[in-house]
Input
Amino acid sequence: MEFSATRFPVLGHGWAVEQLSLALNANRVRHAYLITGPASIGKTTLARGLAMALNCTAASGRPCGECRACRLIWQGKHPDVLQVESEEPGATLKIEAIREMQRQLALRPYEARQRVAIVRRFHEARPTAQDALLKTLEEPPGRATLILTSEDAGALLATIRSRCQPYALQPIQINAVQDALQAHWQAEERQARLSGASSMGRLGWAVRALEDENALAMRDEAIHLLQNMIASTYAGRFAEAERLAKKKHELGDLLRLWQAFWRDAVLLSRGSERWITNVDQLDFLRHVARSAKAETTQQALRATLLAQRYLASNVNTRLALESMLLSYPRVTALPTAR
Ligand SMILES: [Zn+2]
Output
């Protein structure tokens, strides 16, 4: 066995790593992969792991993580491993960037066995830009592998999806996130608990939260805003939708946090307190579960998921937010809540 699942620099997603190393050992490498899943869940990490395995120079136990190829790829500095993405999350992935990547992919590798292009957040490419990539998928250049990542497979053309080997990453267990934070990032137990619980199973998010107090502050702000929203009148909700629509790049995180909140409320209304993620919000969640009907919290959860889909597919942001906020129940603030 040249390739080993345990050598991939990936925590969680064991099934994906296992399948990839089996395929590599059987010499069944595909020309194109599509890794999907929520932001900061580990899509790019898995893509880099695969690029490392493809180019590692160790005799066995690939990716070794120590050879020149592995190290350069891990640092994002290997000349044959391209990373293509929009300027910032939420922006549009330009067709020119895709064309330039195609030009480079067609060249012989400088030093690698296999050129690899990692195209991040491919849902940010408009259909014309996606179409441009189709040519590469239909006639892949030799010695080249294309890895697309996306938060929303639904926003990709069916012709793109059908030509890629899919890997749909799911949130990993909160416990596993907390353990990883303590074992690999030297987090203290309390820090690990809070970051892990707020991460919704996305290790990348949890690691950022450890290093960046803003991430946790942002999460507190998101919960606080939601509390205000559901205590607010329809007029207040319309005004908020308009304000939020101008901060499009922050909406992804905000709606994911709200989604987790509503999921918790639904769980509580069914009496399954054990699985909730927002452990520090238990009193307020209980209050919501008591005040709103179970169907209403369900509906709020569905509306939040739907809004995320709409936002990914470039519909009118304000309308999507309005229709979501209007379907939220009205719940007054807890007397003790600030
Ligand atoms: Zn190596």
